[in-house]
Specification:
There is one protein chain. With 245 residues, this protein is of the alpha/beta class. The chain has two domains: 8-146 and 203-244, Vaccinia Virus protein VP39 (Rossmann fold, 3-Layer(aba) Sandwich), CATH 3.40.50.150; 153-200, N-terminal domain of TfIIb (Single Sheet). The chain contains seven helices and eleven strands. The protein has helices spanning 8-13, 17-21, 27-35, 55-60, 72-81, 119-132, 205-214, and strands at residues 43-47, 64-69, 88-91, 103-108, 133-144, 153-161, 165-174, 179-188, 194-201, 217-223, 237-244. A hairpin with a 4-residue loop joins β7 and β8. The radius of gyration is 18 Å and the shape is globular. It starts with 7 loop residues before the first helix and ends with a strand.
């Protein structure tokens, strides 16, 4: 998508992210899941921390949370909500600007990995994380399972409709390049048209396993969601836990 850059998503979605995606995954289950993987008061690195939807509850549960994000707009929302300065913020790219140190867990939640739009950069991320995990640490990846049969070509869908507002989703999916991009088009009565662009490069669970292996990580477990639902051929999402080999 011409003109789309590292901060485009955050700039476009920061003002509606918590409204639109507050229930996209089970926050309480995520906290419980991570609590079963890392020690109490463990150092946890969240990539694409955004508005703090997960970071703040994880901090409240006892984790020492360091959150990385490139979006000033998203981080401004986190800073406004984090009145106790509970989360340490790193402004920067989640591949190139990761903080040094040994982490008990790293988390990249809700498809955030796919916001890295090349296979090479996704592989780099695994390598960078592998260098920063403790010997018993883990890397938790939460993404959708690509559905190449139903998502191909161009699509126009209705996201929401209210009396004075309509949000349309226009998207393009290319299974050969494993890329998808689109716009949410918001039409509100008496207001200018609002465009909210997004762009992703998806990968299959098997491809992620290969990236992990090449980085020196092994698959420890895979479930369908943070509640621990068993992963099977019908699963539309997965949570994969990788540990040092």
């Amino acid at each position: 998508m011409d003109g789309y850059g590292a901060e485009s998503y955050g700039a476009a979605f920061a003002d509606v992210y918590d409204e639109w995606y507050h229930d996209v995954s089970d926050v309480a289950a995520t906290v419980e899941f991570l609590s079963g993987l890392a020690p109490q008061r463990g150092r946890l690195l969240e990539l694409g921390v955004g508005t703090g939807r997960l970071a703040l509850p994880l901090s409240a549960a006892g984790f020492d949370v360091i959150g990385v994000d490139a979006s000033d707009a998203m981080l401004a929302r986190l800073e406004a909500a984090d009145t106790a300065d509970a989360v340490t913020i790193v402004r920067g790219d989640m591949v190139d600007d990761l903080p040094e140190g040994s982490f008990d867990a790293a988390l990249i939640a809700f498809n955030t990995l796919f916001n890295i739009v090349t296979a090479h950069r996704q592989q780099q991320l695994f390598a960078e994380i592998a260098q920063r995990l403790s010997s018993t640490g883990c890397f938790v990846v939460e993404t959708f399972v690509p559905d190449t049969e139903h998502y191909a070509g161009d699509r126009i869908d209705l996201r929401s409709m209210e009396r004075d507002r309509v949000v349309l989703s226009v998207s393009r999916h290319d299974n050969e390049t494993q890329r998808a991009e689109g716009q949410f088009i918001e039409l509100s009565n008496g207001a200018p048209v609002k465009l909210r662009p997004w762009s992703i490069r998806w990968a299959t669970p098997e491809q992620l396993d290969e990236m992990a292996h090449d980085a020196g990580l092994r698959l420890d477990r895979r479930v369908a969601d943070m509640r621990g639902t068993p992963f099977d051929d019908d699963a539309t999402t997965h949570v994969s836990v990788y540990r040092p080999i």
